[in-house]
Design goal:
It catalyses: UDP-alpha-D-glucose + 2 NAD(+) + H2O = UDP-alpha-D-glucuronate + 2 NADH + 3 H(+). This protein is an alpha/beta fold and about 450 residues long. Helix content is about 45%, strand content about 15%. Helix 6 links the parallel strand 5 and strand 6. It binds nicotinamide-adenine-dinucleotide.
Length: about 450
């Protein structure tokens, strides 16, 4: 099949590369000349494990090309996917649909034959109908269908998630569009084909409901963790004991410094907004958004306590600033709330992150970037583990504590334990929802 992918960000590029690996002919389009130039040189503009090799393989096989020329990509395509950004609109929390609608109109103006216009971006309920209206208004003679195909991949594990999804959700209005979508995804499955075919609105709602639910689960365990600290329970044991219950499941029960990233913050806000617009307030989601902000604030209090009540004049080494490991994405990362509070409080902040510097330099002014954890912690008063990159999971804690001015650690991902830290010479150690040291 011939497919055009509009937008070569985290979702569009991964989807395009993976579709080409199934054997489809893919043309990826972006309006950012820097990205297209890089892609044409064989460089991947984002950090996503394994993407460079898979992309090179499919470019080599002649199934994957890149262009800024949307018209040439759409010509003869069986389906055109819209995978552009839908950030939070300034002021009201609504998803900003400017890029989606602009892409839909551009597609409509150049399409000639029957095509399925597929929204892969996360969009509020009702958007696909608006896309259909925009396309029909821009090109009244065009024979087309719209389809909603929300994406569930996780950055850092995107290829695996795309290749082996738990399910594919497709919202359609016609059998013809359903058939095109099934043909696109069938190569993924040798046996069972867990495609959930729905109407447009249900598909749009599934994505928001799923993300809001996951954000709720994370926030729930974060709130339980805060209580664990007060009552002397250990949240790691609590979440293990909870997660073994098949009705609950063990995923998304790791306590941490609050959820962040390119999806949960904006999608929870958008769902809350959709609820308000329909006079059905999403009270649980609204509470989750509020509690998550409190979780991040609580982290700052924790760090201040470990600095003896004030950040002023302290040297703090922060390990990890991306919103999770194995990505360079900094969008809405907890570090963007926590690090400025340290800098603003008068601390000298050294930051170490395997992939975060490129994005992070502009977002975290006033910090010093250091290549490795040992150099970053040399002479520091506090070590903070903020993102659990593999390289921070087996640190030589003794070497670190010996080099620090004051051997204090805030382990905001529960990588180590008070026993490990104490044995390695740390005089103070605090984590999330567990016993502290010192
Ligand atoms: P992104 O910002 O990384 O990429 C969007 C790309 O679209 C950019 O490269 C931009 O230049 C391009 N673009 C915008 N308008 C264009 C146009 N008219 N023509 C061509 N290119 C255009 O965004 P992302 O993280 O890939 O997210 C895309 C969508 O997928 C969002 O709705 C997001 O919520 C959803 N989503 C993201 C993830 C994730 O993990 N990032 C997961 C699931 C769903």
């Amino acid at each position: 099949m011939k497919i055009a992918m509009i937008g070569t960000g985290y979702v569009g590029l991964v989807s395009g590369v993976c579709f080409s690996d199934f054997g489809h002919d893919i043309i990826c389009v972006d309006k950012d000349p820097r990205k297209i130039e890089m892609l044409e040189r064989g460089e991947v503009p984002i950090f996503e494990p394994g993407l460079d090799q898979l992309m090179a393989k499919n470019v080599e096989a002649g199934r994957l090309t890149f262009t800024m020329d949307l018209a040439s990509a759409v010509e003869g395509a069986d389906a055109v996917f819209i995978a552009v950004g839908t950030p939070t609109r300034r002021g009201d929390g609504h998803a900003d649909l400017t890029y989606v609608m602009a892409a839909a109109e551009e597609i409509a103006k150049v399409a000639k034959d029957y095509v399925v216009i597929v929204t892969k971006s996360t969009v509020p309920v009702g958007t696909n109908r608006k896309v259909r209206d925009v396309v029909a208004a821009a090109n009244p003679d065009l024979d087309f269908d719209v389809a909603s195909n929300p994406e569930f991949l996780r950055e850092g594990a995107a290829i695996d998630d795309f290749m082996k999804p738990d399910r594919v959700v497709v919202g359609v209005q016609s059998d013809r569009a359903a058939q095109v979508m099934a043909d696109i995804y069938r190569p993924l499955y040798l046996r069972d084909f867990p495609i959930v075919t729905t109407d447009l609105e249900s598909a749009e709602m599934i994505k928001y409901a799923a993300n809001a639910f996951l954000a709720t689960k994370i926030t729930f365990i974060n709130e339980i963790a805060a209580l664990c600290e007060k009552v002397g329970a250990d949240v790691k044991q609590v979440s293990r004991g909870m997660g073994m219950d098949g009705r609950i499941g063990n995923k998304f029960l790791h306590a941490g410094p609050g959820y962040g990233g390119s999806c949960f913050p904006k999608d929870t806000k958008a769902l809350a907004r959709i609820g308000q617009e329909h006079a059905i307030p999403m009270q649980i989601t609204e509470a989750v958004i509020k509690v998550n902000e409190e979780v991040k604030r609580r982290m700052i209090d924790k760090l201040r306590d470990l600095c003896g009540g004030s950040f002023n004049g302290k040297t703090i080494a922060v390990l990890g600033v991306t919103f999770k490991p194995n990505t360079d994405d900094m969008r809405d990362a907890p570090s963007l709330t926590i690090v400025p509070a340290l800098v603003g409080g008068g601390a000298k902040v050294r930051v170490c992150d395997p992939q975060g510097r490129h994005e992070g330099e502009a977002l975290l002014p006033g910090v010093t970037w250091i290549e490795d954890a040992y150099t970053a912690s040399e002479g520091a008063d506090l070590l903070v583990i903020l993102t659990e990159w593999n390289e921070f999971r087996a640190l030589d804690l003794k070497r670190i504590s010996t080099g620090m001015a004051t051997p204090h650690m805030a382990d905001l991902r529960n990588v180590y334990s008070a026993e490990d830290a104490g044995a390695a010479g740390f005089s103070c150690y605090d984590s999330i929802g567990r016993a502290a040291l010192g």
